[in-house]
Amino acid sequence: MKRIFAISFLLAALSLSASAQSKSFTLGQWVEIHNAILKELNRSYVDSLPVGRIEREAVDAMLESLDPYTLYVPEEEQDDFRMMIGNTYGGIGAIINKQSLDANVIISEPYAGSPAVRSGLGVGDEIIEIDGKTVKGINSSEASERMKGKPGTTVAFKVKKMRGGPTWAPGDTIDIKVVRERIHLPDVEYAGMLNDTTGYILQSKFTEGVSASVREKFLELKSKGMKKFILDLRGNGGGLLVEAVNEVALFVPKGSIVVTSKGNSAKETQVLKTQTDPVDLEMPIVVLVNSSSASASEIVSGALQDLDRATIMGTRTFGKGLVQSIRPLPYSGQLKVTTAKYYTPSGRCVQAIDYSHRNEDGSVGHIPDSLTHEFKTVGGRTVRDGGGITPDVEIPSKEYGRLTYSVVMNLITDRYALEYYSKHESIPPVDEFHLTDAEYEDFVRFAADKEFDYRSSAKALFDEMKRTLVNEGLAEGMSDELFALEKSLNIDKKTFLRMKKDEIIQFLEEDIVVRYYFQEAGVKLRLRYDDQLKKALETPCLTF
Q1: Helices 402-409, 412-423: crossing angle, 10 deg rounding
Q2: pTM of the complete model
Q3: Which of 256, 161, 244 is nearest to 206 (CA)?
Q4: What's the rounded Cα separation, in Å, for the pair 391 and 288?
Q5: Is the pLDDT of residue 4 over 70?
Q6: Which strand (E) or helix (H) includes residue 17?
Q7: CB 140 within 8 A of CB 94
Q8: Alpha-carbon separation of residue 368 from 1, 210, 312, 387, 511 (angstroms)
Q9: What residue spans of 472-543 are helical by DSSP H?
Q10: Is residue 180 over pLDDT 80?
């Protein structure tokens, strides 16, 4: 028996060794082929060989064939990468826009307490020059890059002021210098009481320190009489794994398993447990999620669901169960590489079965139960894998019409908010602010003069159908029917804007209040129109 075991062990070892050698040989073979092709192209190609461009395209294509999250980041893209993973950048702390190459840069939204605000830059100010160079002829992205830089360095602006100040009048051109700082956009965008007993936190990312911020805000809300807690992770695309674990630790017993990550070998399996004492084990918790809640958001919602600690409400999450690690590369580059899959406490992998085919909004398509597996929460409830976290309580998100998206994405509401700000010295507090019918009508007149696609979804589909009919030679025989249908679908711009007032006004009011009270006020205004949140408030939590 021992002899048979020894032979089996030896065969297995030889098999593994052969596999490793085969892997190394294949890798070496392709490196040799790649280098030979590049050298031959450099020697023989008819034109000058753009080595940098073709090599970058080759690397990007190679990584893209693996999964959507493995990517190469060269040294010159490090700032954008830090912004993506850390929500930080070196700059002045303001959102800008530029309507054309010939226009000045407009300060659209300075951040509360930012270097821009402290240095005297305000909403609607026009930047004419950056460090002595005109902004004419460059786009918004190029202007933004000029304004960013290493914290502690100074950037100089020539500015036309929208409003008067201590030593200038409206319309004066003055010089302003701003010392750049490390700007960190807060992951906890808003925390407050929704009513006498329900506390609410909106969390947009999982960057360093966010779990401590959630802990602090949770305790503040508890001191104000909170008896039920809503954690809003809608639109939260994730971030640091450790922050997700630390956040779950706030609400479950010390030592609880939160997530298991499994790499391509057994030795790369990690079981992550909570390391600290919780702040609350009894309070009813609702976690709001949607199709844009991904990665770390799914770790938190999945763990709290599996541990029967929270009621998950909303719509199914994105389905990103892959863990990325950062690896250094030559010449100060970095590789963000997928190194593991993560699994919730019940054993579910929330990675979508097929991450290359999704709905238009990025969400996971329908997956039949036959392709998924059942798992059990600690209390015995059934949950399934296959793609994202399925809420305990489904609450559909609000859908907006095509016109509303067009008005917002083309910055029509944003531009009107700047005009409104220029004409109104102040507005009431956020809770009391509402646009009047007359003010909305003023917006209609403003928007009607702007260029944007104001067709309804039905009209856009009709136009596509009509083009197809013309291309296939079928339109001539049904010209009367097409004319009648097109006439009924043609709605003039002003009429359509009035029809969609109930949808557009919330974005319009939000864009206006942030000009006076900064970004947190915009979130507070948004809650007024949040039907999904209102439904969650009305829905009892599950009893575990």
Answers
A1: 60
A2: 0.87
A3: 244
A4: 9
A5: no
A6: helix 2-44
A7: no
A8: 47, 36, 21, 11, 41
A9: 479-489, 493-499, 501-527, 531-538
A10: yes
**Other C-beta atoms lying within 10 Å of the C-beta of residue 347:** 13
Any idea which residue has 């100040």 for tokens?
165
What average pLDDT does this structure show over 310-329?
Answer: 92
Interior CA angle at 339 toward 337 and 345, to 5°?
135
User: In this model, does residue 87 exceed pLDDT 80?
Assistant: no
**How distant is the alpha carbon of residue 410 from its chain centre?**
19
Q: Is 189 helix (H, G, I), strand (E, B) or coil?
A: strand
Q: How much is the pLDDT for 543?
A: 87
pLDDT at residue number 366: 66
The SS3 call for residue 191 is: strand
- Distance in angstroms (rounded) separating the CA atoms of residues 390 and 293: 11
Q: Which pLDDT band, with edges at 50, 70 and 90, does 83 fall under?
A: low
220 touches 191 (CB < 8 A): yes
The H or E element containing residue 544 is none
Q: Give the pLDDT band of residue 200 (cuts 50, 70, 90).
A: very high
- Alpha-carbon distance of 27 to 62, in angstroms, equals 14
Q: Cα 265 from chain centroid?
A: 32
Is residue 344 a contact partner of residue 302, using CB atoms and an 8 Å limit?
Answer: yes
List pLDDT tens digits, range 457-498.
888 888 888 888 888 888 887 888 888 888 888 898 999 999
pLDDT tens sequence across 162-174: 999 889 999 999 9
The DSSP element (H or E) to which 335 belongs, if any, is: strand 333-343
Q: How many Å apart are CA 70 and CA 68, to the nearest integer?
A: 6
| Cα–Cα nearest to 87, from 205, 201, 188 | 205
Q: Label residues 500-516 b or e (16+ Cβ within 10 Å = b).
A: beebbbbbbbbbbbbbb
The H-or-E segment that residue 184 falls in is strand 181-184
Which domains does the chain carry? 26-65 (no CATH), 88-184 (2.30.42.10), 188-324+335-397 (3.90.226.10), 402-456+491-535 (no CATH)
Positions marked active-site: 295, 306, 320
Structure tokens at 423: 């004409």
How far apart are alpha carbons 143 and 104 in whole angstroms?
Answer: 10
CA distance 208 to 84: 13
CA distances for 465 relative to 135, 490, 502, angstroms: 43, 15, 30
Widest CA span in the chain? 96
